[in-house]
Structures are given as structure tokens and as C-alpha cells.
Amino acid sequence: MSLNVELLESSFEKIKPRAGEFGASFYENLFRMYPEAKPLFATTDLAEQQKKLIASLVLVVENLRKPDALESPLKGLGARHVQYGALPEHYPLVGNAILTTFEQYLGNDWTADVKQAWVEAYGAITEIMLSGADYDSKTVELEAVTASTPAASTPTAQPKSSVNWGIFGAVFGGMGTIATILLLLA
């Protein structure tokens, strides 16, 4: 799959000046969309976690032109998350929150093409992680943009999930830079 690297880079550049706010908004969106997740971060230093999220975004975007540099760390990350008890259903939760956050920060620049670029990037990274975890990538596929999908829509209410939030918190509670990629991409 060929990613739209230029569009990913240029859209990410637009959020960089507000990176700190972006990180905070991501967690606000995650907790709003999936309120069951909030108690799991009660002992997490969210300011530090927000920095890790941004550092992970930087790592991914800076390596879009050399994806081989991401393959091994992402496969290892996927394998480790199986050990933590992570399931494929956990990946879309964070992916939905990160897409919502990009939409909020890019405003009118959040076009159907930009959304599709980020959906594809998220999908590619998730697929690499899942290949290390031996999960089926179809299970975590995000909805692709269609002609009828508005470029900047109001987020809709999310259905209740059957996610094991205890495992989710254990997986995402104390991650390093590479591990945080899951937070922004999953």
C-alpha cells in the first residue's frame, strides 16, 4: 500500500504548533468517546503521557519515507501487546479518538483526502503491529472515506464496547515512545 506521505506530513505540520494541546485533546476525546477508560488512567501522569503521544506521532511521521525503520519496532510492539492481553478490538478505540482529534485541530483542512490518508496510515501501522501479534488485520480496519462521508462532521455517539478496560489500562498505562504509537494509531 502506498501512503500519501506528503499529505500526512503537511497535515501533521499544521498541528505541531499546538502539539501540547493536541495531546490533551486526544485524551479528552478518548475519555468522552469511551468514558469507561478514564478510571484506568487515574494513576497515570497524563501530562507525561501526552508528551509520549506527540513523540510517537513525530516518530511515525518522520519515518514515513523509510517505513522499514518502523517495521521491527511495530512488530515487537504488537507481540508485546498480546502478552499484555490486548485484543484487536482495542486498536480502533484509540484510532477513532486520534482521528477525531485530527479533525478538531485541522478544521477546514480536514478534508476527505486528509482523513483517508490518516486512515490508511493508521491501518498500515496497525497491520504491522498485528502481524507481530498474529491478529487478523480486518478486525481493526477503520471505515474508509466514501463519497457520502462529509469531510468535517460532528462525531457521533459511540456504541458501548465489550472491551476489557482492565487490560486496556494495563496495556496503555505506562508506555514508552514506541509503545505510545498504539495510542495514536490504534
From TrEMBL:
Segments crossing the lipid bilayer: 165-185
Name of the featured protein: Flavohemoprotein
Domain Globin per the UniProt entry, residue ranges: 1-134
Entry's Gene Ontology BP terms: cellular response to nitrosative stress; nitric oxide catabolic process
InterPro entries: Globin, Globin-like_sf, Globin/Proto
A Pfam short name: Globin
Domain of life: Bacteria
Source organism (scientific name): Zarconia navalis LEGE 11467
Keywords on record: Heme, Iron, Membrane, Metal-binding, Oxygen transport, Transmembrane, Transmembrane helix, Transport
Family (UniProt): Belongs to the globin family.
GO molecular function: FAD binding; heme binding; metal ion binding; nitric oxide dioxygenase NAD(P)H activity; oxygen binding; oxygen carrier activity
